[in-house]
Amino acid sequence: MAFENILVERKERALYITVNRESKLNALNKATLAELHTAFTDAFADAEVGGVIITGAGQKAFVAGADISEFAALKSEGGQALARDGQTGVFNLIENGNKPVIAAVNGFALGGGLELAMACHIRIASDNAKMGLPEVTLGLIPGYGGTQRLTRLVGKGKALEVIMTADMITAADAHAYGLVNHVVPQDALLAKAEELLGKMLLRAPLALASAIKAVNASSQPCVNGFEVEMEEFGKCFDTEDLQEGVAAFMQKRKPEFKGK
Fold first, then answer.
1. Core-most of 71, 101, 138, 144, by most CB within 10 Å?
2. pLDDT for 56-85, tens place per residue?
3. pTM score of the predicted model
4. 115 given a catalytic annotation
């Protein structure tokens, strides 16, 4: 499928998604969100794809927020629908995906851009990255999961400070807060993402999917995460990959997982 707002490229088992609206600092409009929904849905269903790296075009921005021009005519009902559609179609889709998704944050990640990065399983930032949730400066609050995911990552006090001051966070501070996993020079950003994803692609794909599901359950208030972990642990015993992993361990060789 041809996209107008994103670029999608697969190299072996790694899929690269680039938000490609550089003149708009890669801002998320409805069309871009729709394309991201399609790209991630296809990636999670494609057996040839082992994981995803998402970034923004150019060196200035990962995603510098939502397209504010689309907000002007909305009232309460429309605003709720906008948030719900984005959450269901993109942000929750990524977080609950069955394959690892790494955000390579190059430059500004503000508002919806930071929310997009936080929906990913791992975040790597360039040393010039700036992050924040400035919605209160518009009379809004984050609507794509920002209040929830930021709190889970950095704690209630720091999340409220970031949201209510609308201050931008440096890459170094984001790392100190636990918001990003690694900070690297901008010219090493994709290489670091590829290094991490490369290690994951050597592991059992079904086990990776189970790990994502079990870890996500830890932050779902109505779900017993320990029960989910035990269920996913048990399911692994029915996979060919487990048999291969055990055999490889016993035979002192590297396993060759098939995702079965």
1. 144
2. 999 999 999 887 777 777 788 887 888 899
3. 0.95
4. yes
